[in-house]
Amino acid sequence: MKLKTLVTTLLIGSSPIAALAAQPSPSNAEIGVPGPRNCLFSHGPVSGDPYVNAAYPDSATAYWAAIFSTPEGASLTLKGQFPHSRYISFISYDEKGVPVESVADYLIKPEAGSSNPYLPGAVRDSTQRDYRLNVLNQAKTDQEVIGQAQADGQGRPLHAPTNKNGQQVVLYRIYAADQGLHPTGGAPLPEPVLTLKDGSVLEGQAACKALKAAQFPRLAVAAVGMPKSQYLALLKQPGKPDTHPAQETPEWHIQLDRDSLIGIYTGKINPNARRSEGGFFPNLDNQYIRTIVNNRFGDVLVIRGKAPTTPKTVRGDKSMGSGELRYWSMCSNQGFANARVNDCVHDENVPLDPQGYYTIMVSKAKDRPRVAHTECGIAWLPIADDGDGVKDPDVAVVQLRNMLAAPDFKHGVNSVNKDSDIAAVMGEYAPKGTYLQRNIIESVWTCPQKP
């Protein structure tokens, strides 16, 4: 069976068993994806290599998907423990990978006797960390607040309505686990508690069986990556150079709907489209800007900008701090067809100069400047050896994430309404890029000598 046919069967079709049986048997060392799972959150972990690497994950995070169907008249609750990390959330999606609702950590009610470590000032290493989250098979009626922290409140349920393909889809995310605790943040994955119509309660494997949690996803292929044929067609824009849509002075685009994502190539971007729908299973608590990179303009793309303030948690700070954002990162990715992350750097591992500015260099490994190391005050991101992963070996997609902006921070991506406003609204926080040759960089930047 051709790979494309197999993938379509897995994502859209009915029974894939016969197709799988026809494939060569792998060795024990090749079976399965590394990382923990449970009977409900059985898809993942999605992150950088060696985990599942698709749909542009942040490599400092881990994501798990649950695909299930709540029985008629039943109610579902997720029982878990708050991890040791910067952020968690549960987000529901439709069959196209478009988000429905996010319930971020600070909106989750802890159990009696436990505390929520994600609230500002909360003790992060408390031993009582239990919570429960109700998951409703209902549509959300009000508009979701996107990319900005909301007023404090706890106990919000998650609306996860059955999609057009007859499934409910929920993604569980953990960002920036404390040092040494990736991917789970030192906590077990949440378990289902299912109360049936007759009042009987099922947990664990029994609940998963009733939820049909082992069913295969029936998702649009474009939910996790653009079809290769569509991506190749986008590369053929009449009258455009072979570096299109990359520009010698990088142009940044906010994430809107899928048509606007494609519009990076075609120029047809609707500034009135709903935010955060155009990616691949995007996180509603994040806002994104991205640019297409082509190192035919130069060996190295040098990106400079001011870093927003964030809490510091990776090394186990004792209390949850605050900041202009909860989290920010910059990632190098392959093209829209591959939707694979090369690597990311995030706020706590990006060195800053005395004025609070970062320098991030993006290049092929062979062109990495000798000063492009944190010890020299510079972060580095790779371009894959095969570039976009489909056709152009010189292409990467660089993406900036801003998470949960504080209401009084007006320079985050969430405050930008259209591409042309990025520089004016973000000001010093807007990333600015310049292509340079490696030897020029090494003649300009120096690495401080150790005392």
Mind explaining what this structure looks like?
The chain is of the alpha+beta class and about 450 residues long. The chain folds into two domains: about 40-220, no CATH class; about 225-280 and about 285-445, Jelly Rolls. Helix content is about 10%, strand content about 25%. It has seven helices and 19 strands. The protein has helices at about 5-10, 15-20, 205-210, 230-235, 260-265, 420-425, 440-445, and strands at about 45, 60-70, 75-80, 85-95, 100-105, 130-135, 160, 170-175, 190-195, 200-205, 255, 285-295, 300-305, 325-335, 340-345, 355-365, 380-385, 395-405, 430-435. The chain has a five-stranded antiparallel beta sheet with strand order 1-2-8-4-5, with no helix packed on it. A five-stranded mixed beta sheet has the order 7-6-3-9-10, covered by helices on one side. A hairpin with a 5-residue loop joins strand 4 (about 85-95) and strand 5 (about 100-105). The longest helix is centred in the N-terminal third of the chain and has 9 residues, at about 5-10. The chain is globular and about 70 Å long. The N and C termini lie far apart (about 60 Å). About 45% of the residues are buried. The model is unreliable at about 1-25 (pLDDT under 50).
